[in-house]
């Protein structure tokens, strides 16, 4: 062996001239025989892993000009349980090539067609339309003991939904045109099924309906974000496994809570006023001449938090939830017409590099998200669920955080439970809780803990008078800005 080992090493093939030499080297332990007439030299990876790296070389050696097809086309040639599927119009070898960690399985199928992509080692990769057709099951007995060659109808419908999401009707029309070109070379029944699905999305055909939930929703005009629904489902399961701890808002200690809720909710979004100036704005109706829009934000948040109807409305259906979102946002953003008050976003929005639910998936994700949490009946848990759904979807150009907190608190007030105030010092803890769910760091345990502590803290503050509440807030560090005092200063329980 020449040179230092490399991860995958090099494959050597026995011929008339070198068969004896390779056999001697294998017996001496300098190379490893991995199959009949196939040896591996100089690999630092374990043999099965190294063989997997050579899958395209091996496929091309035994089936030159083959097409990577079926389930392997959907994975871009990545192995499925050690299997690589190829097809060839006249395969010289009918039996599978079975080596440690790799089985290359060939079937009779069309050679490269329009839309197929040139690939490594002279192979081709099935194009989008061809792979959709090839991955639909055909009649017959399934293979026992290994993954089926086709990925299945749901996987095909999911892939069609992804194409529609990324390219819209133009992409679907192009796929349909490509299918018409290559259809004679493909199995009849699967090709017809793909044609029906593409045509139905374009509104030109109504055959049998799709089976995959996302494609059904898209055809019904409400496509949704599958990743977010999985995220919501995990949080729902966590909530259902967590014992409720109702905290009723009995007594008369709450008069000033709506004001401080509005004050702190705007602080989180960067709208900062001195608290006594905020009183004049929210309670007395003064408008800051230097910052009229910011002043209106505080006024509007307070107006919603104190309004008998808006502050205690719990939506009973997904459609009612959408209307509640629009109503709250319409009031909240009334002084900012450029933020399209009451209208859902029509372009995607981001927080840094983090992308919220795409605009064309928004309503479907909100509706399905609301339905996902239908089994959650405890008011605090529903409040947490609604906050997560709204925050992840970010349905508006601006005002999403305040809208989420107001609607979350409305669910609590409707059940007679204590609303949740997020004071300034607790801002980073609150945002970290939300980001933890977004980044799949657990199933939402951190967010649930943050909201639970905030509600317990809110419950023990005496909100009967401004002066009394103000004094308690100062003692608990509620007003402190974490950007100024640092992360060592924490919200204290009175």
How are the SSEs ordered, and which strands pair?
Elements: E1 10-13, H1 19-27, E2 32-35, E3 38-41, H2 47-53, H3 55-62, E4 67-68, H4 70-74, E5 83-88, E6 97-99, E7 102-108, E8 117-118, E9 124-125, H5 128-134, H6 153-182, H7 188-201, H8 213-219, H9 226-240, H10 257-268, H11 275-282, H12 292-306, H13 318-332, E10 350-351, E11 354-355, H14 362-372, H15 379-393, H16 400-414, H17 427-438, H18 445-460, H19 466-475, H20 482-485
Parallel strand pairs: 4-9, 5-7
Antiparallel strand pairs: 1-3, 2-3, 4-5, 6-7, 8-9, 10-11
Taking the alpha carbons of the first and last residues, their distance comes to: 74 Å
Number of helices: 20
Low-confidence stretches: none
Strand content: 5-15%
Side by side, the strands of the main sheet go: 6-7-5-4-9-8
Topology, number of strands:
11
Please write the CATH class name of the largest domain. Mainly Alpha
Task: Explain what you see.
The chain has 494 residues and is an alpha+beta fold. The chain folds into three domains: 1-52, no CATH class; 153-219, no CATH class; 226-485, Orthogonal Bundle (Fic-like fold), CATH 1.10.3290. It has 20 helices and eleven strands. It has helices at 19-27, 47-53, 55-62, 70-74, 128-134, 153-182, 188-201, 213-219, 226-240, 257-268, 275-282, 292-306, 318-332, 362-372, 379-393, 400-414, 427-438, 445-460, 466-475, 482-485, and strands spanning 10-13, 32-35, 38-41, 67-68, 83-88, 97-99, 102-108, 117-118, 124-125, 350-351, 354-355. A six-stranded mixed sheet has the order 6-7-5-4-9-8. A three-stranded antiparallel sheet has the order 1-3-2, with helices on both faces. A two-stranded antiparallel ribbon has the order 10-11. Strand 6 and strand 7 (102-108) form a beta hairpin. Helix 5 (128-134) crosses helix 6. The longest helix is centred in the middle third of the chain and has 30 residues, at 153-182.
């Amino acid at each position: 062996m020449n040179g230092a080992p490399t991860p995958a090493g090099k494959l050597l093939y026995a011929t008339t001239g070198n068969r004896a030499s390779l056999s001697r080297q294998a017996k001496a332990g300098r190379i490893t025989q991995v199959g009949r007439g196939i040896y591996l030299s100089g690999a630092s990876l374990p043999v099965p892993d190294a063989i997997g790296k050579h899958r395209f070389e091996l496929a091309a050696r035994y089936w030159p000009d083959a097409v990577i097809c079926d389930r392997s086309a959907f994975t871009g040639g990545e192995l499925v349980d050690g299997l690589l599927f190829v097809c060839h119009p006249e395969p010289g070898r009918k039996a599978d090539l079975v080596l440690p960690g790799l089985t290359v399985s060939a079937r009779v199928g069309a050679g490269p067609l329009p839309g197929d992509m040139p690939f490594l080692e002279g192979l081709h990769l099935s194009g989008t339309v061809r792979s959709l057709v090839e991955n639909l099951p055909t009649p017959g007995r399934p293979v026992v003991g290994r993954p089926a060659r086709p990925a299945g109808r749901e996987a095909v419908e999911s892939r069609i939904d992804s194409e529609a999401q990324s390219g819209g009707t133009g992409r679907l029309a192009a796929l349909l045109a490509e299918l018409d070109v290559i259809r004679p070379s493909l199995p009849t029944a699967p090709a017809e099924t793909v044609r029906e699905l593409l045509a139905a999305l374009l509104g030109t055909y109504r055959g049998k309906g799709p089976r995959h939930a996302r494609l059904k929703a898209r055809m019904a005009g409400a496509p949704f974000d599958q990743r977010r629904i999985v995220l919501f489902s995990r949080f729902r399961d966590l909530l259902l496994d967590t014992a409720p701890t109702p905290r009723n808002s009995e007594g008369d200690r709450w008069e000033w809570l709506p004001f401080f809720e509005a004050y702190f909710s705007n602080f989180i979004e960067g709208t900062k006023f001195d608290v006594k100036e905020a009183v004049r704005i929210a309670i007395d109706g003064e408008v800051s001449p230097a910052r009229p829009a910011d002043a209106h934000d505080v006024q509007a948040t307070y107006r919603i938090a104190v309004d008998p109807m808006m502050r205690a409305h719990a939506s009973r259906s997904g459609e009612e939830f959408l209307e509640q979102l629009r109503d709250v946002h319409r009031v909240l953003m009334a002084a900012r017409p450029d933020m399209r008050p009451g209208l859902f976003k029509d372009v995607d929005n981001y927080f840094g590099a983090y992308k919220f639910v795409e605009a064309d998936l928004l309503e479907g994700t909100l509706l399905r998200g609301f339905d996902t949490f239908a089994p959650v009946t405890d008011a605090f848990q529903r409040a947490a669920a609604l906050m997560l759904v709204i925050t992840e979807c970010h349905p508006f150009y601006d005002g999403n955080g305040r809208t989420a907190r107001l609607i979350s608190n409305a669910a609590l007030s409707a059940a007679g439970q204590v609303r949740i105030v997020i004071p300034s010092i607790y801002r980073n803890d609150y945002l970290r809780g939300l980001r933890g769910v977004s980044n799949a760091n657990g199933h939402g345990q951190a967010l649930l803990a943050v909201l639970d502590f905030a509600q317990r803290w809110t419950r023990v503050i005496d909100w009967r008078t401004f002066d009394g509440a103000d004094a308690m807030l100062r003692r608990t560090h509620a007003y402190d800005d974490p950007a100024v005092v640092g992360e060592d200063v924490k919200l204290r329980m009175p």
